[in-house]
Amino acid sequence: MTDTPDTPDTPTSIQEPRRWSDGRWTAQVIKNEDDDGWAVAMTLQGESEPALVGPWTMGRDKKNPKPLDVSAFNTLVKTASEVLRRHEQQLHAQLHKNVTITVRGERLRVALAIVPDEEGATATLSAHNALGEELARVPVPPSFQLTIDRATAWAEAGFGRLR
Fold first, then answer.
1. Residue 117 falls within a domain, yes or no?
2. Which residues of 69-144 form beta strands (DSSP E)?
3. Separation of alpha carbons 97 and 148, rounded Å
4. d(Cα 123, Cα 96) in Å, to the nearest integer?
5. Residue 64 and residue 106 in one domain
6. Stated pTM of the model
7. Number of folded domains in the chain?
8. Which domain range does residue 132 map to?
9. pLDDT tens digits for 25-66?
């Protein structure tokens, strides 16, 4: 069943027993290949892979899946959105690291920021004082391992270029 016309500005809403979509997320009930049960896949519009795949409840006949409904769809959207949010947080944490050090009595925050790129990632090491003012910024290889010892050595050496 389609609630709205399919125009570029208006996403199509689908509400079928095994497929629901709000134009942004699509829930698709699928046969679970590992057993006799069912699974549901939540896919974000424009993505080729689902963000979430999980078990789905059997219907009363114990053969067919329980039909999707608005409550189940909303719960699935919330769960799939949370999975994506956690993935983004994990990726951010992998690409942005920082340590706090003390050099000559001054507290400094040294940060490593990696920018992924298909043609070659880049990375920058920066140092900030307690007020957040940038004291230094140098390019480093994306493989650079930020540790307290390396940050301290860099600061004590005057924030020179690293290799």
1. yes
2. 96-103, 106-115, 122-128, 134-140
3. 11
4. 10
5. no
6. 0.66
7. 2
8. 95-156
9. 999 999 887 777 899 999 999 999 999 999 999 988 888 899
